[in-house]
Every structure is written in structure tokens, then in C-alpha cells.
């Protein structure tokens, strides 16, 4: 059976009882001078976002939509040995030699020999000019035997990342961010350079602050400003607060004034206040908008569930800071109303807005008291300036390093997941 490793990325991993314990994130191989690489095992991500090692000897079946293992998995954080390589994270997109021609590695195939060992036996390569983005391959794709290519052990100045990103194309930004954290600095920079601005912005929002700063500092100033503009204003403001003031101001100056304005407003509030946590782009409609229009806004794919939970009603202009704030309409109420009705008639008059300078503990109590997932933030002039969502609050309640919790060992004596036998 021949398995192409890039297609394993994201595949669910199950024990024989049918319980899913995680997903495949990479394949660990050992390069050998004169022989095909030996597959040591799989990097599996288990909750909560911890990467562990699953020896290939524990894998009993690999299917298109499942990897099944037996035995036990050690839950200690995966650490790659110096003699090992990550097939997806490090070997894809390499430029190697095939019969005197430079080709790009698209994928690697592994097969099990008669002795039961898994080896990398085939290499899918692109003969032609390598592309720098997804879906833009030019040239001929061929699959050759491993001994026909050379150059896998060489360090390359610009490896590119199109094929690595293709393997993670269907993953959520948080999962791609976690994969990015575990790559070498050079490879991380190559992946960031290959990502489109919007996708990189989504990934940056899911990274710890030090990784955000590290990636942003490797981008040229113009692109860094474009990526900041593609981020949610509250996430962009949080990132800029961690930069030296001169650098932050220089990036703001490169942004379009219309894109920089909401970020500058958010920077005027203290970090642990409603204004410092809020998103400045909630769903806002005038009172004469219809229920059908409100539901269409909620259904937008780029809207998070917390933001989509309610629609804020205000006099024009409907961009923050809005005209006079009128109230909030919950999505459950919208679903019960005729589509032709007006949102002004679906306002919940029992929910009072909060002020931008309300501190974090008070915001938390407010959401808990009224069982809300979001709260309107209104300034002293009666204008809606944003909304605080429950995920904004959680980001500030959790420890600063919560995105890096997989660096710590599991609590208590339970250090393995038993896959049965």
C-alpha cells in the first residue's frame, strides 16, 4: 500500500474502539545516505493542541479518512531528534536534482516492505518553474523512485511553501498557527511569505505574542501594514501594543487611513477594559432594515459565532462610532420574526450597554449575569463604538501563555492514551 504523506495531514486518528484521539499533523522520517528514508512515526495533535509522537509500529491501518493504532501513546510533547526530519513541514517544496534537472518536491510516498518497515519510496516532483502560491503549479508532475533524486540533505536559502500550505489548505487558522509554531524559524518565515494577506492575518491572530512579533518583523514594512489591515482591528491593536511605539506608529502610518482609524481608536483604551477588548466591527443595522437583511448579515462566513449572536441597531452611520445607539436584537428573536419585519421592532429593551472604560471583572460579571455571549459598548455620546464578545473576555482571563500550553507536560500520572489491543 502506497501512502502520500501530504494527504495524511489532518487525518483523524482512532483507537480500535473507534474513539478519536487526535489528528495527523506530520510524518517523522530519518534520511539515510544510501537508502530510502525510514518512517519513524506520525506527529499527532491531541487536545488541547498538544503534539505527541505515534510510533509507526503502533499503526495498524491507514485509510483515506482514518489512521487506526493499537497500544498506548505517550502524551509527552513531541521533540524531533537531530537525525529526523518532518516530511511535510521540512521536505515538501525542496528543490532537488533529478537527472541533472532542478525539480520541486510536491509530495512523498511511503510504503511498507516485506520486513514490515515503512520507507519513503517515491517522490512526486514538479519539472518546471516552481510557483509561490497555492493552485499555481506550472510544469509537468511526475512520480519517481527515491534513488532517482538527490539533494534532500542540503539547506536551501529559499525553499518556498506552496505544497506545505496545500497540505494544510482545509485546516482552521488555529491549526495552521499551531503547525507554524513547531517549524524552524527559516521555514516559518517561508510559510508566512507564501500565505495570502488574509490567511496570514487569520493565522497571526491565533499565535502567541512573541511569535506574532517574530513573523511580522520578518515582513517588509509595506506587507506588514497590509497584514495588519487584514486582521480584526482589536487583534491588530493588541499586536501593535506589544511593538515599540515608533515601530507601531510607522506601521499605522502605512495603513490606509480608513483601516487605521478603528485601530487607533482601540489603542486609546486601557488593555483590560471593555474598550481595549472589544471588536469595532460588530453587525450594525439601521432600525428600518428588514429581518431578512439581518439574517443575511449573520450568515456571512467571515462572521464568528459570538459576533453573529446578535445584531446592534443604531441610527446612521452604521460604522462605529455609529449614530445614536438604539438597542440589540438577538438572533433567536430574529429567527422568530417574519422576514419582512423591521429589526427596529425586534430590539431587546432589557439589555443596557456598557461603557468603554468598564474594567475586565465588571465586563465578565455583566456577561455572566445576563447569560450573554456579547455586549454592546456605547460611549458618553450614545454612539455604539464596538462589542465585547465572550472570546475577547476569555483571551484576557486566560494566562498570557495559554496558546503555548502544549509546552507543558500533562498534569497527574496519566501520561498515556491507551489504544487497546
TrEMBL record:
CDD domains: CBS_pair_Mg_transporter (cd04606)
Official protein name in the record: Magnesium transporter
Domain CBS: 346-407
Species lineage: Bacteria, Bacillati, Actinomycetota, Actinomycetes, Streptosporangiales
Cited Pfam families: CBS, MgtE_N, PRC, SH3_actinomycetes
Region feature (Disordered): 400-421
PROSITE patterns hit by this protein: CBS (PS51371)
GO cellular component, one term: membrane
Keyword annotations: CBS domain
Start-end of Basic and acidic residues biased regions: 401-411
Molecular-function annotations in GO: magnesium ion transmembrane transporter activity
Keyword Transferase attributed: no
Residue stretches in coiled coil: none
PANTHER family on file: MAGNESIUM TRANSPORTER MGTE
Amino acid at each position: 500500500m502506497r501512502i502520500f504523506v501530504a494527504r495524511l495531514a489532518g487525518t483523524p486518528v482512532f483507537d480500535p474502539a473507534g474513539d478519536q484521539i487526535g489528528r495527523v499533523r506530520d510524518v517523522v522520517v530519518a534520511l539515510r545516505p544510501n537508502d530510502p528514508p525510514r518512517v519513524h512515526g506520525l506527529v499527532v495533535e491531541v487536545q488541547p493542541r498538544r503534539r505527541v509522537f505515534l510510533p509507526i509500529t503502533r499503526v495498524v491501518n491507514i485509510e483515506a479518512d482514518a489512521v487506526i493504532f493499537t497500544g498506548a501513546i505517550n502524551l509527552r510533547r513531541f521533540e524531533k531528534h537531530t537525525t529526523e526530519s518532518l516530511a511535510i513541514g521540512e521536505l515538501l517544496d525542496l528543490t532537488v536534482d533529478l537527472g541533472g534537472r532542478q525539480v520541486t518536491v510536491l509530495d512523498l510516498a511511503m510504503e511498507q516492505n516485506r520486513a514490515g518497515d515503512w520507507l519513503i519510496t517515491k517522490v512526486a516532483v514538479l519539472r518546471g518553474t516552481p510557483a509561490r502560491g497555492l493552485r499555481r503549479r506550472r510544469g509537468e508532475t511526475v512520480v519517481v523512485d527515491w534513488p532517482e533524486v538527490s539533494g534532500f540533505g542540503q539547506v536551501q536559502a529559499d525553499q518556498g511553501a506552496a505544497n506545505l500550505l496545500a497540505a494544510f489548505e482545509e485546516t482552521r487558522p488555529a491549526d495552521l498557527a499551531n503547525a507554524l509554531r513547531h517549524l524552524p524559524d527559516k521555514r516559518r518565515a517561508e510559510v508566512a511569505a507564501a500565505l495570502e494577506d488574509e490567511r496570514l492575518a487569520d493565522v497571526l491572530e491565533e499565535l502567541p505574542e512573541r511569535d506574532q512579533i517574530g513573523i511580522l518583523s520578518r515582513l517588509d514594512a509595506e506587507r506588514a501594514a497590509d497584514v495588519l489591515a487584514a486582521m480584526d482591528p482589536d487583534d491588530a491593536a493588541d499586536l501593535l501594543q506589544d511593538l515599540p511605539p515608533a515601530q507601531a506608529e510607522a506601521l499605522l502610518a502605512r495603513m490606509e487611513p480608513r483601516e487605521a482609524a478603528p485601530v487607533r481608536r482601540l489603542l486609546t483604551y486601557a488593555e483590560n477594559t471593555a474598550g481595549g477588548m472589544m471588536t469595532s466591527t460588530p453587525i450594525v443595522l439601521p432600525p428600518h432594515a428588514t429581518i431578512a437583511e439581518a439574517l443575511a448579515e449573520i450568515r456571512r462566513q467571515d462572521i464568528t459565532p459570538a459576533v453573529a449572536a446578535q445584531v446592534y441597531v443604531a441610527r446612521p452611520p452604521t460604522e462605529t462610532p455609529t449614530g445614536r445607539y438604539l438597542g440589540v436584537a438577538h438572533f433567536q428573536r430574529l429567527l422568530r420574526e417574519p422576514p419582512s419585519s423591521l429589526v427596529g421592532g425586534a430590539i431587546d429593551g432589557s439589555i443596557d450597554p456598557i461603557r468603554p472604560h468598564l474594567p475586565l471583572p465588571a465586563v465578565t460579571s455583566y456577561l455572566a449575569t445576563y447569560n450573554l455571549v456579547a455586549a454592546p459598548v456605547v460611549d458618553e455620546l450614545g454612539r455604539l463604538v464596538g462589542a465585547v464578545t465572550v472570546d475577547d473576555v476569555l483571551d484576557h482571563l486566560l494566562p498570557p501563555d495559554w496558546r503555548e500550553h502544549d509546552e507543558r507536560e500533562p498534569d497527574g500520572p496519566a501520561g498515556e492514551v491507551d489504544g487497546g489491543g
